[in-house]
Amino acid sequence: MYLTDYEQEILEGKHGEGTRMAMEIVIKMGELYGADRLIPVKRAHIDAAAYTTIWDAGTEFIEYLADHGAKCAVPTTINPLSRDIKNWKELGASEKFALKSKRLEDAYLKMGVIPTWTCAPYQSTNAPHFKEVVSWSESNAVNYVNSVLGARAERLPDMVDVCCAVTGRVPAYGRYLDENRKGDVLFRLEGFDDTWFQDSVDFAVLGYYIGEIVVNKVPVIEGLPERTMPDDFKALSAAAASGGAVALFHAVGLTPEAPTIEAAFQGTSDYEIRIVTPADMEAMEKRLNTATSDKVDMVLMGCPHLSANEIAEVAGLMKGKKVCDGTQFWIMTCETQYNLAVRSGAAQILEEAGVVITKDTCLMEMDEGDRRWEGQNFVTNSGKAAQYTPAINRVKIHMASTAGCVKAAVSGRFSGEVRR
Ligand code: F3S
């Protein structure tokens, strides 16, 4: 692999052992993928923040880097932790478990991360610009910045993402290269009236449907409404990246690399075409709905973390109501969006209604073996949560719109309607 003089110096240990080790790993991974050079980045986002993702061995590795002088070379935000920093006790974490998360947090802080602890950094402080090369991980965030912002990102593996942030370099491979950003499959939406795509749950279901079909190819979507909002794209990005492993999609007329179908396919015409109808979406909804009883134990929103705008929408619907006895309603977000929700008054409305707003963390990362939610029925508007919580927390799922989530929380029952 070609290295600049500066990169060679890092590899020789002239900038410290931690940075040297990080560079060695970045180069090894680049070689595995056939990269012939490294690309400098100006910003990074790290996924490997939850103790339950990287466990003791991963924690020791991060501590090793931090103790040997490794620092983030560029502004670097970071994913949710395994604990809510202020309220971990109230949320049921044990002291032993909280301390393990704290060890990892301390190592990252020593390395100079910006402590956002969120999986949606693009809605807070870290939004790359068009064509900017970034060191990125967290599957929804990679898909979002690649597709919606037109940045250049790849699904970097956990730990390698840390090494890239420390060296300020990524290997030149995959979606970093323009030729790998061409669409592979056209999804043409047909037969959808104006009642569709009014709520992010439709974007989640569509994302999951497309992700399952293309896995890691590049889908091009034709027919999404012009009113599609960033939060809708967030839902679509997360679901496509977890139903499949989509790292990049194009939405014709809406995302920057797809002003036209021709542009999305880089002028080629040998692509597959699939028609998506309301019946396909309804069949997907049915498959995601695994709960057999209408009883609701938990309503979970915020996978990925809710924006202040989404929190305000939920607060508007919850105003004057209460979460039903026997049902929990959790909203996951980060401290930054939470503070905005406090300023707008939305957070107080929700908390008075009995909604739990978690910060810095993710329900799927909060357990070290205990099965507190096992067998419960969850209601969520998130395609990613519909994929992860049954596997990680052993729960069953009903998908619902934002209004449907609120109704389920207030009544303790699922209405049977995904989109109302
Ligand atoms: Fe975020 Fe956890 Fe979902 S990290 S995207 S809330 S699985």
Tags for this entry?
420 residues, alpha/beta, Aconitase, domain 3, 3 domains, 5-stranded parallel sheet, 4-stranded parallel sheet, globular, binds FE3-S4 cluster
Describe the structure.
It is a single chain. 40% of the residues lie in helices and 12% in strands. It is α/β, with parallel strands linked by helices. The chain has three domains: 5-174, Aconitase, domain 3 (2-Layer Sandwich); 182-286, no CATH class; 290-411, 2-Layer Sandwich (Aconitase, domain 3), CATH 3.30.499.10. The site of FE3-S4 cluster (F3S) has 13 residues, from helix 14.
How far is the N terminus from the C terminus?
55 Å
Query: How many structural domains can be distinguished in the coordinates?
Result: 3
SSE arrangement, N to C: HHEEHEHHHEEHEHEHEHEHEHHEEHEH
Strand content: 5-15%
- Helix/strand-derived category reads alpha/beta
The best one-word shape is globular
Radius of gyration: 21 Å
Low-confidence stretches: none
Largest sheet: 5 strands, parallel
Name of the CATH class of the largest domain: Alpha Beta
CATH domain topology of the largest domain: Aconitase, domain 3
CATH architectural grouping of the largest domain: 2-Layer Sandwich
Chemical compounds bound to the protein: FE3-S4 cluster
Question: What's the count of strands?
Answer: 13
Mean pLDDT: 97
Q: Give the strand line-up of the largest sheet.
A: 11-10-9-12-13
